[in-house]
Amino acid sequence: MTLKATWYENDNRFIPGHWQPAVLVDLALSRGIDSHRLLRGTGLFHEDLQAGKARLCAQQFLQLIDNSERLLAAADTRFLFGQRLLPGYYGAASHALQHAADLSQALDIVCRYRALISPLLSPRVLLDEQNVYVYWLDTCGAGAQQRFLVESAMTALLAMSRWLAGAPLPWKVSIAQTRPRQVEQYWVNLGEDVRFDAPVDLLSLPREYLHQPWPAAAPTAGQAAQQQSMQQLQELGFDASLLDHLYRHLLANLRHQPQLENVALAFGMSPSTLKRKLHRHGTHFQEQLDLARKHMALYLYQIKGQSNEEVAAYLQFHDSTNLRRSFKRWTGLAPSALRQLWPCD
Amino acid sequence: MTTLLKLHRLKLVVLLLATNLALLLHLAAGHIKPMSEWVWLDILGEGGSTLLCLTWLGLVLKSRPAGRVTSFLAMGLGLVFFSWWVDTLDEFIRLPDSIVWDHWMESAPMPFGLLLLTLGIYHWHREQLAISAQMEKRERLFREHRLFDSLTPLNTAEYLRQHLDQALCQARSAQQPLSLVILDLDNFSRINHLHGHAEGDRVLQALSQLLVLNLRHQDLLCRLAGDRFVVMLPHTGERQAQQLAEDLRLSVEHFAHKARAHGERLQLRASVACVMALQDDAESLLQRLNQALAHAKPALYARSA
């Protein structure tokens, strides 16, 4: 049984060159970078981007990011890129964002039309009683570029909500790396409330800001733009990447101890095909499974407030000692240290 | 490359003719040595020097604006190159002993070349002093071009950090106070949104000039990140620093920047804060400064519903 692929992989050419890639190209050109050197190795020409004809695959976009970082050689490239990303000029999806009624709707749009708005990074939104949380998943094997992508996505969401809400929102920022030397870039671009050495890259905000009305809201125009975006997704034939689908599948099936074989079956391919595809994305099955388990464990500990035994039972660990060991491997922290350093608020 | 040829055509033509002439004269008067007589060490030493000298000449012409100092340097290097070139030719072409002009060709240009080079370097030194005076308030103690800001004619946070380490030591040993002022534009992203990022860049460039004008000669201005600037004030206590911060804030508020597109005036506002160094190192001092700014910023957060 083979299904028509309903996802994209890192060699599908579908990202319009004059959308997100153009934001980065324009930034680099405004800093005096030569367009030929900027596009070297991407197989692209500036004229094609300008003509609106070029379609990039994820690999080409990642190469472009790598070139820009190297040529600009500045600590602020990812933040400047992020500030210009959203709502952006990506056709109907950008219109829908511009006319969003509030943050809740804007997040919904960013998630639903992620293949159009954020093709390299899939945003995920979580809610508990107090807060809304946003984190991102690598969709196409970004490798070394993942930090660039995540930090620019954070900057983009902060900058967009600040612009559309008419004032900055008190986002809290967690960064999953040690405090970098250029910490001032984080202060200026992500606000004073940045914490480093976090178990996962995360934004959080008190829930009451979700439904605070935004001044530029235009419900009818927004609805129409969403319809158009939906149509675009249908024409593309997918709304998310392979890794994105895999993550969701794993997350939903963690209680059933997912294995390469049965997951491949669910995706309508042989285990060796899935293995090969994951390899092409710079990852492997166990890594993806560990990622899903890490996120689920964090969710159960932090948001559900569950005990070691409950989490171990959910994730099908024999005992909590094994879980603690694995958790430490995934996050660098023991569950007890996690509760101390990152208390649920 | 084309501008290089256009600016220095005469110099390069003369050099080319002279090298060719020397080669032709040698070929006409002498005969080529067989390979068995070649002395590889001499060829490597003299030929290598000749090539290096040509590289220096190229780099000097390429990197310096045309002018008097550049001409001195180019002529000096040109003569040195010529003299080494003739020296190298000797290794391949044997001239009869009766000929003496080759010694002249080899030895005479060298002292003149070195004299001109010395003159050029001396004036280069004078020129550098003049440029350094222009860099006043934007650079102190040391220069590192890799730490230049890519947008404004200022240094980056990394330069500030390295400089601060030295300045804090000096201040401590001289028992002098040292203060920092931080300045951050209010609602800068609005300018980017309404007038475009290129206009935002121009605002930052203009602002860096404006802030320099308001400083004393011993102060140092750097761009921390984005629209945030830091001034280091040696020999300055907290009170005086506050006064200076207030001066900067007012100058930003009264600054009538005009957008390029329609000449519209952009109203700018800034928040300022200052701290005096106590027992801090550079890192903790910057952290404290940033916290002071966060307190000084007007409560901007949108009200929750």
Automatic annotation (TrEMBL), chain A:
<dbReference type="GO" id="GO:0003700">
    <property type="term" value="F:DNA-binding transcription factor activity"/>
</dbReference>
<dbReference type="Pfam" id="PF12625">
    <property type="entry name" value="Arabinose_bd"/>
</dbReference>
<keyword id="KW-0238">DNA-binding</keyword>
<keyword id="KW-0805">Transcription regulation</keyword>
<dbReference type="GO" id="GO:0005829">
    <property type="term" value="C:cytosol"/>
</dbReference>
<dbReference type="Pfam" id="PF12833">
    <property type="entry name" value="HTH_18"/>
</dbReference>
<dbReference type="InterPro" id="IPR018060">
    <property type="entry name" value="HTH_AraC"/>
</dbReference>
<dbReference type="GO" id="GO:0000976">
    <property type="term" value="F:transcription cis-regulatory region binding"/>
</dbReference>
<keyword id="KW-0804">Transcription</keyword>
<dbReference type="InterPro" id="IPR009057">
    <property type="entry name" value="Homeodomain-like_sf"/>
</dbReference>
<dbReference type="InterPro" id="IPR032687">
    <property type="entry name" value="AraC-type_N"/>
</dbReference>
<feature type="domain" description="HTH araC/xylS-type">
    <location>
        <begin position="244"/>
        <end position="341"/>
    </location>
</feature>
<protein>
    <submittedName>
        <fullName>Transcriptional regulator, AraC family</fullName>
    </submittedName>
</protein>
TrEMBL record, chain B:
<protein>
    <recommendedName>
        <fullName>diguanylate cyclase</fullName>
        <ecNumber>2.7.7.65</ecNumber>
    </recommendedName>
</protein>
<feature type="transmembrane region" description="Helical">
    <location>
        <begin position="69"/>
        <end position="87"/>
    </location>
</feature>
<dbReference type="InterPro" id="IPR050469">
    <property type="entry name" value="Diguanylate_Cyclase"/>
</dbReference>
<keyword id="KW-0472">Membrane</keyword>
<feature type="transmembrane region" description="Helical">
    <location>
        <begin position="12"/>
        <end position="32"/>
    </location>
</feature>
<dbReference type="InterPro" id="IPR029787">
    <property type="entry name" value="Nucleotide_cyclase"/>
</dbReference>
<feature type="transmembrane region" description="Helical">
    <location>
        <begin position="107"/>
        <end position="125"/>
    </location>
</feature>
<dbReference type="InterPro" id="IPR000160">
    <property type="entry name" value="GGDEF_dom"/>
</dbReference>
<dbReference type="GO" id="GO:0043709">
    <property type="term" value="P:cell adhesion involved in single-species biofilm formation"/>
</dbReference>
<keyword id="KW-0812">Transmembrane</keyword>
<keyword id="KW-1133">Transmembrane helix</keyword>
<feature type="domain" description="GGDEF">
    <location>
        <begin position="176"/>
        <end position="305"/>
    </location>
</feature>
<dbReference type="GO" id="GO:0052621">
    <property type="term" value="F:diguanylate cyclase activity"/>
</dbReference>
<dbReference type="GO" id="GO:1902201">
    <property type="term" value="P:negative regulation of bacterial-type flagellum-dependent cell motility"/>
</dbReference>
<dbReference type="Pfam" id="PF00990">
    <property type="entry name" value="GGDEF"/>
</dbReference>
<feature type="transmembrane region" description="Helical">
    <location>
        <begin position="38"/>
        <end position="57"/>
    </location>
</feature>
<dbReference type="GO" id="GO:0005886">
    <property type="term" value="C:plasma membrane"/>
</dbReference>
<dbReference type="InterPro" id="IPR043128">
    <property type="entry name" value="Rev_trsase/Diguanyl_cyclase"/>
</dbReference>
